[in-house]
Amino acid sequence: MITIWKTPIVATVEQVLKDLKLQLYGAGLLKEIKNTGSDLMCTCPFHANGKEHNPSCGVLLQQKVTKDKTYEAGTVHCYTCGYTADLPQFVADLLGLSSPVEGFKWLVNQYNYQTEERELPDLDMYRGSTAKSSVLEESLVKQYTQNLLQSEEACRYLHKRRIANWVLEAYELGFDPEDKTVLFPVRGMDGKVIFYKGRSIAGKHFYNAKEVDKTSVVFGLWEILNGSFSWGTADQIEEVWITESEIDALSLISYGVPAVAIMGSHISEDQCKELERTPFRRFVLATDNDDAGRKGASQIKRLLIPKGFRFINLKWHTSLKDINDLVKEYGDGWKDHLTGY
After folding, report:
1. Where would you tag: which of 19, 176, 213, 332 has the fewest CB atoms within 10 A of its CB?
2. Distance, CA of 196 to CA of 194 (rounded, Å)
3. pLDDT for residue 242
4. DSSP-derived secondary structure for 88-156
5. In terms of DSSP H, where are the helices of the chain?
6. pLDDT at position 132, please?
7. CATH topology for 122-340?
8. pLDDT at 176
């Protein structure tokens, strides 16, 4: 993920250049792209008809700060012809767009889409081609986790939401310091991280990567099947709480309650199949305390009761919106404001 014009773009610089190369395949531009560690070196598309033999065009992988100026990730400079541009200008020049603004719009439309379905900042990050077949490198997961544990700001944000330290580590939550985004790893049934579900701790925009199918997996399901928790092993769990968001699930887990998140108000057929593969057959429906949450709870029951699942509904004795709000407001007494039936 990079920041362009103060906006998170859910892609790496290398991914952007490779996508541009594919889009311009017929023209033979950006024929060679080399990662040097701090920069990318590519064949310059603006001199020698884009056919130079050795890459002479440098592209910053990350933001660079000098005494005189700050250069955004994606800033381009050709050491042969002198061409210099930020990433939106570079995109516009390559694709024949009318202005850098159009280049910026291309980046946003290519890698982000905005949604205002929920109030919380929401950012999905993904690496790969399909949610089922591609996984993040383990070294990247570990690096994001180290970033989180070393960030007082990120840990403070999560502590305010009543998520315990042991949960941060057990679930390998991460942090992207450049964009101030807390990252929640979503794992497949093999335990490998497929994508990150993230939340900005600074902004109020909503972003999702286009390619991510959040409905293909259930957040936290692998962990409660395979983790070591105070409630024991998976076969000792009597009931699991189903929530909408990963924050809700993790705040429950911090209080010793087994929980998962469907990452939305409605469950998908793929998520139903994931639940069918587990030994769990009794669930507490802890979707949000609003019309969408209640409709979602009804849909979950409609799909899973015929398959042998049993559910406990919740009556809320408060106007608070979701489980995390409840836990933040009442702490250890949060259950006193719910009645199961």
Report:
1. 332
2. 7
3. 98
4. HHHHHHHHT-SSHHHHHHHHHHHH-B---SSSS-EEEEE-SS-TTT----HHHHHHHHHHHHT-HHHHH
5. 13-23, 87-95, 100-111, 138-149, 152-160, 165-170, 221-226, 246-254, 269-276, 291-304, 323-330
6. 42
7. Dna Topoisomerase Vi A Subunit; Chain: A, domain 2 (3.40.1360)
8. 81
Cα 222 versus chain centre, distance: 17
- The stretches in the chain having pLDDT less than 50 are 114-124, 126-134, 204-210
Amino acid code (one letter) for 203: G
Whole-number pLDDT of residue 136 = 62
DSSP 230: T
Range 2-111: architecture per CATH = Alpha-Beta Complex (3.90)
Q: How far is CA 228 from CA 171, 192, 235, 258, in A?
A: 11, 17, 12, 11
- Tally of residues, the chain: 341
Domain-wise residue ranges, the chain: 2-111, 122-340
- pLDDT reported for residue 334: 96
Nearest CA to 169 among 216, 99, 227? 227
Q: Which two tokens stand for residue 157?
A: 């944000």
Q: Which of 243, 244, 241 is nearest to 257 (CA)?
A: 241
